Amino acid sequence: MLCGCICCVVHFCIIPCSLWCASLLCPMHCSDKMIYEAAIALSQSLTSEERQRGQIFPSVNRIREVSKQVACAVILQAVEEGQVHETTLDRMPRLSTPGALSAYVHRKMYDPVYVPIV
Q1: Which pTM value belongs to this model?
Q2: Gyration radius (Cα) of the chain, Å
């Protein structure tokens, strides 16, 4: 569990997810509203069990799930602001389809699978 300071939040999830979204979208600008939406998505990612334990951040073992939620929120905000090039939007799924964005982001996640060299 994290110590609870704001620096941990920023370095644990907000910055990595925002950079990941930037690599997926190539937005023209990263606005304050995008960072705000990342913070909101992070706060909403707590499970009821985590809230009952008094946690203010999600558990580290759920980092991939939480990162996906944060990334989706930032992507939706970037699209709403018109910060995404049309060519990038053409490669993305239709955002009106439920779960399509989440599935797209999940497919783009790095999956550290290590194969033996020898």
Answers
A1: 0.76
A2: 15
